[in-house]
Fold this sequence. Notes:
Structural class of chain A: mainly beta
Number of helices of chain A: 0
Low-confidence stretches of chain B: none
Oligomer: heterodimer
Largest interface: A-B, 21 and 21 residues
Low-confidence stretches of chain A: none
Strand content of chain B: over 45%
Amino acid sequence: DAGVIQSPRHEVTEMGQEVTLRCKPISGHDYLFWYRQTMMRGLELLIYFNNNVPIDDSGMPEDRFSAKMPNASFSTLKIQPSEPRDSAVYFCASSARDRGRFEQYFGPGTRLTVT
Amino acid sequence: AQSVTQLDSQVPVFEEAPVELRCNYSSSVSVYLFWYVQYPNQGLQLLLKYLSGSTLVKGINGFEAEFNKSQTSFHLRKPSVHISDTAEYFCAVSPSGGYQKVTFGTGTKLQVIP
Lengths: 115, 114
């Protein structure tokens, strides 16, 4: 299994630009999560999907953030317009609820720097 | 709602010494508990989990944790640490009986000193 795949691994952009982060979950997993990790706030859950449907987006910081999951094998997190305070590492994770498997499998993360 | 407290932000320990990383949780319902490890510049990886049954849970890399319901704790232990255990460790909790979002602690950085 290839694991959770995220792209790009690093992104440097200027304030005001649109940023799109991509995630491919593990095949067969029915939950997908987007997290943000910063030194100040630690690991924060932004949004999660079940069977491609957004279940809880209460962690999305503001309207500049949006996430989609058009199919079971792909999700995007978009920031428009980006701001310096969005600089962080963004993780995607997936999990499968069958047979009581509740552990989340994390991707390697995307390090976003907004200048 | 549930919460997780990891009181120690950093724990230095000499190689081959034992270590305990503390985790306390708060929840009004039954919970599942997890420990994850994050090596530098990598994503989180599951170390071990408690879903039900035996309160002593063994995980990968020689780690184990004990669920103590009365003290609402899930401390992580290893009898002898190695340099390669240097990483950040996260305790996490989710309500049992149906999938809901996992709440992570703030993490404990374990520094193994040669």
